[in-house]
Each structure stands twice: as structure tokens, then as C-alpha cells.
Write a structure and sequence with these properties.
With about 750 residues, the protein is α+β, with helices and mostly antiparallel strands. It has 24 helices and 21 strands. A 9-stranded mixed sheet has the order 1-2-5-6-7-8-14-15-17, with helices on one face. Strands 3, 4, 18, 19, 20 and 21 form a 6-stranded antiparallel sheet that branches. A 6-stranded mixed sheet has the order 10-11-12-13-9-16.
């Protein structure tokens, strides 16, 4: 017994020493609270941190503010920036091993490294100054903290290279990829071409019957036809298999964000209110970095992307703006021979380097053999940002002038100003294709008439100012109707979210910031309500409200039936072909799913789908045997945010990953929430009180394990903040959290 006690005591002491040692290593990597002198400042500048480590940067000029922005972002997110830079360069495998090779190969094929380098050389003097100032701030942090850049660097034995202007442009390229990757859908459209034309149109809807586009439809509608060939290319099966093995964003994820704005006639204050919640992958740390910049009597606040000098979404002292993805089709595949090639050598940790030969056709790099990708993001002339223009805009005219220089990724931009105006405009590049071509099919690269004819002039992009209704809503739905003379896209998200937002906004007037923030957290899926009603199974759903609450078993059952119904209908439509349901991904699938569920039994038989009642009953039986049938929605849809070190779970997952959470919302609710994807931030701006802007992110400002600011915003993001105390963006600094003044050198 004495030996056992002695052994347990020794084990306890060793455990304490081990925990203390690990804690000491983590603590040593946490950033200190001072800013060193940064070369190039034109005057005194300072950084104040509030209780959440959200910085207010005060400087004599915007360029000086960018220098300090680079420093404070690197202070909290340097490893995140390092991974983004390496991802764009195709250099992840040399850090983490062969598992990263598919992504490295893709980014080497795109040539992101070469594009960013050339774009940095071509950028305007003003952009270069901003990018260089930001890089100087990042590099000041790297120089100040030798060997103490973050725990991840220490564990990997990695020293960060100096940040460059091109590195910032690589971060922008990754956003282009997230928001405008659609080339795989052209392969899908090619595969679906074996089906009868009515079935093709059914499975690839371009219009939702519930659509309320901001630019109306023409009457009669113009004729739009895809590029058509009589026979499919014999390499299609090979292309589909190669594309399936290539990393890429989920089309449904690409089309998921909300923004809306209402005029003063609909608010309690008499001034406009603007809301925005972009939906992206939820990672640790998150994609956004909240901050405030002050210079020359002006200010701007909102969120920045780590690695890029600007405030992307937010407001200044005169105007506010928010983004959702427009969904423009910016990628076309061209069937053509390779004209030249380049060889890429990819390093792999623990293994010999891998050689990659990139074939390049007349229209761009070949993403699969024989198919070249035409994409404006790969043209260095189109890779730049408005930077100061947007942040300094004071009115609708200056806002539009700034956005005219914003080549992408294309966005629905909502607008409000202190004078009471609200507006919307589409930004980015819209390709000019030959008449009647919507870009949805593979093109023949040997025929010059199938080449793009440039882009819609920025001044010709559609916009709306002060609509009579007093509100504007976008949620990746079809905002541009056929009255606009150029096809913008061949697929859009359904009206599920946008329709729900409109319904709620029209229910009442007297909106305020608290009510807007509550609306952003609305868990009801308008689609699921309609789908369950169309199934006409009151025995299964006697009191269904459509609310995707974490305790709801009923919502789990509705979603299981949706998935089963989708698969079984596709199996019947694809019968006799080589296609399977896994070959089908379309952003507008909710449209045809509802149409199929609402169709009569006679319409089902005429469409070759057989007996509708029998299929629905088969769906019910199959869903009832699924292990999830009696589980709550929170269990099925549990959010699991992961750190790069915790992707494989295990001890590193336990150490680095935030705890799983069961939250309201679904992929089709206003509060978009899946296991990996959701509201990457929520912002509400009241133009009557700009200092009371609300903004919250899923975790916290810091990417450092052990920091008190790693997840200190999580509770407000999860539960909401009715009084706006925790999420108020501009908060008074807290004693002891002011950073030392940085003086010019």
C-alpha cells in the first residue's frame, strides 16, 4: 500500500510538472502588449485594445494605419496568414506531408504564386503603398519576437518568411477561389446532356418561381441556350472522375450569405439599418479580424481579412456596406490542346519532392487533361482591391466610383448612409459571351467565336437607390433578372433565406438594432416548411414549425426525408444512364425538389417517375430506419470547429479544437448552420448611431492557444446579445490594455 501511495504521488507530481511545462511553453508564445517603433510612419500612431482585444488604430494617415494593422493582425493571426500564403503557393505538403498534395497540385495548376507576383508588379502606386505598409507592419512583428511567433511555429520548427505585397494578393486569390469556383458544374451539365431536354431543364433551374429580383425580368423572356454539341466528348467519364478527386468548395456553401438594409421609414430611429452575416467555413481561428482605423479626422470599422490591408465589410463616418456572393459564372472550360507547359516541383515532408507538369492551353491552365480554365482571377491585370476608395467614400456616387474599381469576387453590395439613403449594386466582372450562351456548358476552344468578348463595363453594372418599398434583401438568390441584357449566371440559390427575411421585414415597422440581430439568428427554414407541407404526411409532422432548433427531433426527420427524397428522385431520373445522385450538385436544387414534391400523382406518372405515393412511403420507411431518426437536430448537426492541428482528432484535437456545440439553424435558415459552415460574423449598423454598431465573430480575436481572447466572443455569437453590450464594436479601452504609442523613425 505504501508503495502504491508513493507511486501515485510520484505520478501526480510528474503530471503537474508536465502540465506546468506545457503551460509555460504556451504562455511564452502569447504576444506581449507593446508595439515597437515601426519604420516608415509619418507621425505618431497608437493602438488601443478593448476588453476583447479588438484594436482601435489611430494614425496620421491611412498608410500609417495599414502599417499598424499589419502588426496587430500578425500579433494574433500570424500562423493563419502563414497557412494561407502556403496554401496559395502550393507549399502545404512540405509542411504537413502528402495529405496536402491534392490542394498543392490544384493551386500549382492555377499558378496562384505566379499570378500574385505579377499582380504585385502591376498594381497602382496607391495599392502598392498600402500593401508595402501592411507588409512592413507584419515584418516588424516577426522581427520583434524571434522564436515567439506562436505555438504552432514552435511545434513545427518553422520560421516565418518575410511578408510581401504578393502574399496579400495570394489571400485575395483564395477568396476568389472560395466564391467563384464553378468549373465542375460545367462537367456536370455536360453529363446531364444525355437526359431529355425537359429533364435537363428541370434539374438545372435558372429561375425560382418565388424570385423577386432587384432587376426585373424582361417580358417576354430572352432566349438563352447553352453551348450545344451533338455528342459528348468520350473523355467525359475521365474528366468527371478527375474533377471529383480535385479539392473544391461545395456549390451550396459558395452560395450562402445574408445582407439586408431598410430605410428610415421602417426603423425606430428614422435612419437606415443595415445587416450582414456572410456564411463561410468555420475554422479556428475564424476568417475575420474586427478592428477600427482612425486617420485624418475619418474612421472606418468592421472586419478585415488577415493578410489584406483594408476593412472589407463595415462602415465609416458616412456610409455602411455589406456583401453577399453574387454567384456570377466567372469560369468557363475550353476543350482544346495544350499550347505549352511548365513544371512545378512540390516539396513533401518526409518524402522526395513530387514533379507536376502543368499543361496550359490558349484559354488558361488545364485543370484536367484537354480542358483549359478561363478565369479572370488568373489574369494579374484583374487582381487588385479598391482599398482606400471604399473606406473614404462619403456618399452613393463615391461608393459606386470605388466599387467600379473592384473587379471581384462579384458581390451583392447593400448600402446605407447617414443622409437616409439605401441602395444595392452588383460588383465585379461579368463576362461578355456570344449571344445566347449562358456559360453553363463546355466550350470549343478551337472556335474563336466562343471566346469571351471582354466584360460588362463597371458603370453598366446594375444598381438600385432608394426603392419605394424601403427595403433591400439579398441572400445569394437571383437578384438580376433578364431585363439586364447580359446573362450573369445559370444557377442561383433558392429564395428560402431571402424570402424568409423579406417576410419578416414586412411584418412590422419600427425596426431597431436588437430586432435586426434577433432576425439574423432566426432558425426557421422556409424551404423545409414548404417541403413538409407538400409531402402531406400529417402523421409524421402534426405541428411542424420549420424551426431548426437543437432540441428538435422533428426537424431531423424533415431533413432526413429531404435527403432521401432527393436521392430517390434522382435515381429514377438517371435510370438507364451512367449517372448517379453523387454526380449531381446544383445550387438551385431546392427549386426542383419542391416542384417534384408539389406535383400531382398524374404529373409524376407522365414524367416517368412512377407512383408518387409509393416513392414517398419508401422514403419514409428508409428514413425511419436511419440511426438519426430519433436524434435531436443538435446532435445530427453539431458544430465542430477545428484548428489545422486538430483536423485528425486525437490528443492534438483535444488540445487545439474548440468544444463542439449544438446550435440552432440549418443550411436553409436565415441562421445558416451546418457542422462546418455558418455565420462567419454578424454585423448590424444603425446609421442613427454609428458608434453603437454590433459585430460578433464565432470565436475570438486571437489565434493563440491559451489566450483569453481565443474564444471570448463565442457565447455572444451563440446566444445573441439583445442589449448590444458584448458585441458593440467600438468599446472604450480597458485599463492595462492600451498598446504603447509607436513613434516615427
Amino acid at each position: 500500500m505504501r508503495t502504491l501511495k508513493r507511486g501515485l504521488l510520484t505520478l501526480g507530481i510528474l503530471s503537474l510538472l508536465l502540465a506546468g511545462g506545457v503551460g509555460g511553453v504556451i504562455w511564452r508564445q502569447l504576444p506581449s502588449g507593446d508595439v515597437p517603433p515601426i519604420a516608415g510612419l509619418s507621425g505618431p500612431a497608437s493602438v488601443d485594445l478593448d476588453a476583447r482585444a479588438v484594436p482601435t488604430i489611430s494614425a496620421a494617415s491611412l498608410e500609417d494605419a495599414f502599417r499598424l494593422q499589419g502588426f496587430v493582425v500578425a500579433r494574433e493571426r500570424l500562423f493563419q496568414m502563414e497557412l494561407m500564403r502556403r496554401s496559395a503557393d502550393g507549399r502545404l505538403a512540405e509542411l504537413v506531408g502528402a495529405g496536402a498534395l491534392p490542394l498543392d497540385r490544384l493551386h500549382r495548376t492555377y499558378g496562384f504564386h505566379q499570378v500574385a507576383d505579377e499582380a504585385a508588379r502591376l498594381c497602382t502606386p496607391a495599392e502598392r503603398q498600402a500593401l508595402e505598409a501592411y507588409a512592413a507592419g507584419v515584418n516588424a512583428f516577426i522581427a520583434q519576437r524571434p522564436g515567439r511567433w506562436g505555438l504552432e511555429f514552435q511545434l513545427l520548427g518553422l520560421k516565418p518568411e518575410a511578408w510581401t505585397p504578393a502574399d496579400s494578393l495570394k489571400v485575395l486569390l483564395l477568396m476568389h477561389e472560395d466564391l467563384s469556383s464553378s468549373w465542375k458544374q460545367e462537367l456536370q451539365a455536360e453529363a446531364l446532356a444525355v437526359l431529355p431536354r425537359p429533364v435537363q431543364r428541370f434539374l438545372q433551374p435558372s429561375v425560382d418561381p418565388d424570385d423577386e429580383p432587384l432587376v426585373p425580368d424582361a417580358r417576354p423572356a430572352p432566349s438563352i441556350t447553352s453551348t450545344h454539341r451533338v455528342a459528348q466528348d468520350p473523355r467525359l467519364a475521365q474528366w468527371l472522375a478527375l474533377a471529383d478527386a480535385t479539392p473544391g468548395p461545395d456549390p451550396e456553401v459558395r452560395l450562402a450569405s445574408n445582407n439586408w438594409v431598410v430605410a428610415g421609414s421602417r426603423t425606430h430611429s428614422g435612419k437606415p439599418l443595415l445587416a450582414n452575416d456572410p456564411h463561410l467555413n468555420l475554422d479556428c481561428p475564424g476568417i475575420w479580424f474586427p478592428l477600427r482605423l482612425e486617420w485624418g479626422g475619418r474612421f472606418v470599422q468592421g472586419v478585415a481579412l488577415p493578410g489584406i490591408p483594408t476593412v472589407v465589410i463595415g462602415h465609416n463616418d458616412r456610409i455602411a456596406w455589406g456583401f453577399t456572393n453574387l454567384g456570377t459564372d466567372l469560369q468557363d472550360l475550353y476543350r482544346e490542346p495544350a499550347a505549352r507547359s511548365r513544371v512545378e516541383r512540390i516539396g513533401v515532408k518526409g518524402k522526395a519532392p513530387v514533379e507536376l507538369k502543368v499543361a496550359i492551353g490558349r484559354h488558361g491552365p488545364q485543370v484536367v487533361p484537354g480542358l483549359s480554365l478561363c478565369w479572370p482571377a488568373l489574369d494579374p491585370r484583374h487582381l487588385h482591391m479598391p482599398l482606400a476608395g471604399l473606406m473614404e467614400a462619403r456618399n452613393w456616387a463615391e461608393f459606386n466610383a470605388a466599387i467600379d474599381h473592384h473587379p471581384g469576387p462579384p458581390q451583392n453590395m447593400v448600402y446605407a448612409d447617414v443622409d437616409g439613403h439605401i441602395g444595392w449594386r452588383a460588383s465585379g466582372l461579368v463576362p461578355l459571351r456570344k449571344p445566347g450562351d449562358d456559360g453553363s456548358r463546355i466550350h470549343d476552344g478551337t472556335r474563336p467565336e466562343e471566346d469571351w468578348r471582354g466584360f460588362v463595363p463597371p458603370a453598366g453594372m446594375p444598381r438600385v437607390l432608394d426603392p419605394q418599398e424601403g427595403l433591400i434583401v439579398t441572400a445569394n438568390n437571383r437578384t438580376i433578372g433578364s431585363a439586364f441584357p447580359y446573362p450573369v449566371a445559370s444557377s442561383w440559390a433558392s429564395m428560402s433565406r431571402a424570402g424568409r427575411i423579406r417576410e419578416r421585414l414586412l411584418e412590422r415597422d419600427g425596426w431597431d438594432a436588437a430586432a435586426f440581430e434577433a432576425l439574423q439568428r432566426d432558425p426557421v427554414s422556409r424551404f423545409h416548411l414548404a417541403f413538409v407541407a407538400a409531402l402531406n404526411r400529417p402523421d409524421l409532422f402534426p405541428t411542424f414549425t420549420g424551426a431548426a432548433n437543437p432540441t428538435s427531433v422533428t426537424f431531423t426527420r424533415a431533413e432526413l426525408l429531404r435527403r432521401t427524397f432527393r436521392r430517390k428522385v434522382l435515381e429514377r431520373l438517371f435510370q438507364g444512364t451512367a449517372l448517379t445522385p453523387k454526380d449531381y450538385r446544383h445550387a438551385g436544387e431546392d427549386v426542383w425538389l419542391l416542384e417534384a414534391a408539389r406535383a400531382t400523382a398524374e404529373q409524376w406518372r407522365e414524367g416517368g417517375l412512377g407512383d408518387k405515393a409509393n416513392l414517398i412511403q419508401a422514403c419514409v420507411v428508409e428514413a425511419q430506419h436511419a440511426p438519426e431518426w430519433n436524434r435531436s437536430w443538435g446532435e445530427v448537426n453539431e458544430l465542430r470547429i477545428k484548428h489545422p492541428f486538430g483536423l485528425g482528432g486525437g490528443l492534438l484535437g483535444w488540445l487545439f479544437n474548440p468544444a463542439p456545440r449544438q446550435l440552432p439553424g440549418s443550411a436553409r435558415s436565415i441562421r445558416v448552420m451546418t457542422g462546418t459552415h455558418g455565420q462567419s460574423m454578424r454585423m448590424v449598423v444603425d446609421l442613427a448611431d454609428l458608434e453603437a454598431t454590433r459585430l460578433v465573430i464565432p470565436l475570438g480575436q486571437s489565434g493563440h492557444l491559451g489566450s483569453q481572447h481565443r474564444s471570448d466572443q463565442a457565447e455572444a455569437w451563440q446566444l445573441g446579445d439583445p442589449e448590444g453590450h458584448t458585441t458593440r464594436l467600438h468599446q472604450p479601452r480597458k485599463q492595462g490594455l492600451i498598446l504603447a504609442t509607436a513613434t516615427p523613425r
